[in-house]
């Protein structure tokens, strides 16, 4: 980042001003990217407000609807999906949206509203925790449209089926004890905290770097018996290190966020003999790829056990992937364990 621009990025500035300053590095920018981030933050504020008063309204609990993975959707899943979809489709500078809650992508139908970005979103990750007042989150990834023909031409699936390496920006919102938005546009990772008294996200972390070594081991150990031998061995060894402690919330955004700030490794390994979990649980496009971009920009790494998540080419919108992310050394340690068993 240009030093003159970096000087203006100070703690406390609001997100809109921050975007305006960072966009100075791109004099050719049309404003669509700023508009898109603006719509994401607007939707995040609306969802945050609803989550904060969740116990008061009739919005907790499950619906009778199932998503494409056969999981029963929580009311707040549907609410968050509707809020983000509306904000992005009508005014977001995008041409197509892939949502974890929708089986098919959503097209921007009117040519005059079509922008040059394709967005993936997990509107409410960790929603099975919502009834217990546990942190949940939203994850988003922003790609450049690949379909030729300009706004007159409809977008296509290939605009969404891109490897994480092609992400223009990625981020998440964690609805926790405070609401935070963390994002990267490929140069540093920024963290903003929502000041609800003024309704603005203010810069609280100007340059997040994953501390290393040490930190938290974060994995659902109740699946220990289902993992492959190298993964079991790696987890046991990390658990025994003196500078590691265990924490697992079961809400990826919150687990990832803690480890981004404190170091360590988050794992969701495959369970080779368990139907539906042979590639783990997490979704490549909606969860793994955006988080991999953030981990990598913060000096860490995310892997599927064999290669960097950013290099994995998606075949389908709802592909799942094993996921190991955090300190570069810890992720490489797991990769090497897996490799040593294959050799
Ligand atoms: P839900 O959105 O159904 O709560 O799933 C959340 C999630 O995809 C991810 O946020 C967690 O890391 C992971 O599932 C937790 O899964 P386990 O309950 O199997 O540990």
Identify the notable features of this structure and list them briefly.
343 residues; alpha+beta; 8 helices; 15 strands; binds 1,6-di-O-phosphono-alpha-D-fructofuranose
The helix fraction, in percent, is: 25-40%
**Shape label:** globular
Q: Strand-residue fraction?
A: 15-25%
Integer-rounded radius of gyration: 19 Å
Major β-sheet annotation? 8 strands, mixed
End-to-end distance: 42 Å
Q: Strand arrangement, largest sheet?
A: 4-3-5-6-7-8-9-10
Q: Which regions have little confidence, pLDDT < 50, spanning 5+ residues?
A: none
Question: What is the averaged pLDDT score?
Answer: 92
Structural class: alpha+beta
SS element count, helices = 8
- Find the count of extended strands (DSSP E, 2+ residues): 15
Hetero ligands: 1,6-di-O-phosphono-alpha-D-fructofuranose
Write the element-wise H/E pattern from the N-terminal end onward: HHHEEHEEEEEEEEEHEHEHEEH
């Amino acid at each position: 980042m240009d030093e003159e621009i970096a000087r203006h990025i100070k703690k406390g500035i609001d997100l809109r001003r921050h975007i305006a300053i960072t966009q100075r590095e791109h004099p050719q920018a049309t404003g669509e990217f700023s508009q898109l981030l603006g719509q994401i933050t607007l939707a995040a504020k609306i969802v945050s407000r609803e989550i904060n008063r969740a116990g008061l309204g009739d919005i907790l609990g499950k619906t009778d609807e199932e998503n494409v993975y056969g999981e029963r959707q929580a009311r707040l899943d549907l609410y968050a999906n509707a809020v983000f979809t509306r904000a992005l489709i009508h005014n977001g500078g995008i041409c197509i949206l892939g949502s974890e809650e929708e089986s098919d992508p959503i097209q921007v139908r009117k040519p005059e509203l079509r922008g040059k970005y394709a967005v993936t979103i997990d509107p409410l990750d960790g929603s099975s925790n919502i009834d217990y007042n546990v942190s949940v989150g939203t994850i988003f990834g922003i790609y450049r449209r690949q379909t030729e023909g300009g706004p007159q031409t409809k977008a296509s699936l290939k605009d969404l089926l891109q490897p994480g390496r092609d992400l223009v920006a990625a981020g998440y919102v964690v609805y926790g004890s405070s609401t935070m938005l963390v994002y990267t546009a490929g140069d540093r990772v920024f963290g903003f905290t929502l000041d609800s008294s003024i309704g603005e996200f203010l810069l609280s972390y100007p340059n997040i770097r994953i501390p290393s070594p040490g930190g938290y081991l974060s994995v659902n150990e109740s699946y220990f018996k289902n993992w492959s031998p190298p993964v079991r061995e790696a987890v046991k060894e990390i658990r025994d290190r003196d500078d590691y402690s265990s924490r697992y919330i079961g809400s990826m955004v919150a687990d990832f966020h803690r480890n981004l700030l404190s170091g360590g490794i988050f794992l969701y390994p495959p369970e080779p003999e368990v139907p539906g979990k042979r590639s783990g649980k997490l979704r490549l496009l909606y969860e793994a790829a955006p988080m991999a971009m953030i981990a990598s920009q913060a000096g860490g790494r995310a892997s599927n056990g064999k290669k960097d998540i950013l290099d994995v080419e998606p075949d389908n919108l709802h592909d799942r992937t094993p996921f190991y992310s955090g300190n570069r050394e810890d992720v490489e340690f797991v990769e090497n364990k897996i490799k040593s068993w294959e050799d």
